[in-house]
Design a protein that fits this description.
Immunoglobulin-like; three-stranded antiparallel sheet; 1 helix; 129 residues; seven-stranded mixed sheet
């Protein structure tokens, strides 16, 4: 998918996502995207994700009939050190929007280091001392 065909998700409230603060290797996590575009105008909503074990993005398309668009991932089933993702929505008029994007409207995937919870909280407690 060429970035030149993807439109910035503006207004920002039309298609958005709140990323997690941290992803742990020992716990499943959910990623949810929200759309305020009318369902009747929507062709497809997808997440594109990759891990360090798979260099290319994998597309998972959400069920448009569902009230919520949630992607679940379990690092115990597919161990990884890094996890990257972004969401897209295609409208029936041919428009494509994505999140997250930068100020120029280019897709900037969220990328997380998958953390060990013990190490993560140990580092956090040392910062607060």
């Amino acid at each position: 998918m060429s970035n030149s065909s993807i439109k910035p998700s503006k207004p920002r409230t039309a298609f958005f996502h709140h990323p997690p603060k941290v992803i742990f290797h020992s716990r499943p996590f959910d990623l949810e995207v929200f759309s305020e575009f009318p369902r009747s105008n929507t062709e497809k909503i997808s997440i594109f994700y990759r891990t360090d074990a798979q260099p290319r993005y994998i597309e998972k398309t959400f069920d448009l009939a569902s009230q919520r668009h949630i992607f679940s991932f379990n690092p115990k089933d597919k161990p990884t050190k890094k996890f990257s993702y972004f969401f897209t929505i295609e409208l029936k008029n041919g428009s494509v929007y994505a999140t997250p994007i930068d100020s120029a409207g280019m897709v900037v995937p969220h990328t997380f280091e998958v953390e060990d919870p013990l190490e993560y909280y140990k580092k956090r407690s040392m910062k607060s001392d």
